[in-house]
Task: inverse folding
């Protein structure tokens, strides 16, 4: 249980950091970070955390983790987000 809670904490921290980072991802492709804007939009659209938005939240978290991984931050999932 302690180990799983630690993994959860690390993953949650990764998402938190990613949702605050704006600008471009590192590298020459000039890929704009999308997670912070998406998060802001979801907070406005889903103030009461309606269950109909569950997939939007899951996808946002996956994107945030991908962007954090791509920026050289803490890697907490497989590249496909398939496993911790």
Result:
């Amino acid at each position: 249980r302690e180990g799983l809670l630690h993994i959860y904490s690390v993953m949650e921290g990764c998402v938190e950091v990613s949702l605050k980072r704006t600008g471009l991802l590192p590298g020459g492709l000039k890929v704009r970070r999308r997670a912070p804007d998406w998060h802001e939009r979801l907070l406005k659209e889903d103030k009461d955390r309606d269950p109909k938005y569950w997939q939007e939240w899951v996808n946002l978290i996956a994107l945030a983790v991908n962007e954090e991984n791509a920026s050289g931050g803490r890697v907490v999932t497989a590249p496909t987000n398939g496993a911790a």
